[in-house]
């Protein structure tokens, strides 16, 4: 089981939240989502806290967005 988790981690690199926002690949305001959906994003594995920084797993983020986007910006 641990091997699957490691291979998944290697295929989904984590990038900093500011870099993700600046990249133009994020279709919504990630800081807004962090304020209103932090626990859900963390539970899903889309956002990872590392010290004072937030890191993003883009693949999981887009999966989270597809699963929760119909609920709007506040739920």
Topology record:
Layout: H1 2-11, E1 14-16, H2 17-23, H3 30-44, E2 47-50, E3 53-57, H4 58-68
Antiparallel strand pairs: 1-3, 2-3
Mean pLDDT: 85
Q: Based on CA inertia axes, which overall geometry fits?
A: globular
Portion of residues within helices: 55-70%
β content, as a range? 15-25%
- Judged by helices, strands and strand pairing, the structural class is alpha+beta
Number of strands: 3
The stretches of 5 or more residues where confidence is low (pLDDT under 50) are 1-9
Question: Main β-sheet, in a few words?
Answer: 3 strands, antiparallel
Number of helices: 4
Rounded Rg: 12 Å
N-to-C CA distance:
34 Å
Biggest sheet strand order reads 1-3-2
Order of helices and strands: HEHHEEH
Number of domains: 1
Describe the structure.
This protein has a 3-stranded antiparallel β-sheet. The protein starts with a helix and ends in a 7-residue tail after the last helix. The chain has 75 residues and is α+β, with helices and mostly antiparallel strands. The model is unreliable at 1-9 (pLDDT under 50). The protein is built from 4 helices and 3 strands.
Features:
75 residues; alpha+beta; three-stranded antiparallel β-sheet; 4 helices; disordered N terminus
Outline of the structure:
The chain is of the alpha+beta class and 75 residues long.
């Amino acid at each position: 089981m641990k091997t699957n988790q490691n291979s998944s981690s290697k295929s989904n690199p984590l990038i900093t939240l500011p870099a993700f926002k600046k990249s133009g690949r994020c279709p919504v305001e990630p800081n807004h989502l962090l304020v209103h959906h932090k626990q859900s994003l963390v539970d899903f594995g889309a956002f990872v806290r590392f010290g004072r920084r937030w890191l993003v797993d883009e693949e999981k983020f887009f999966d989270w967005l597809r699963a929760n986007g119909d609920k709007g910006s506040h739920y």
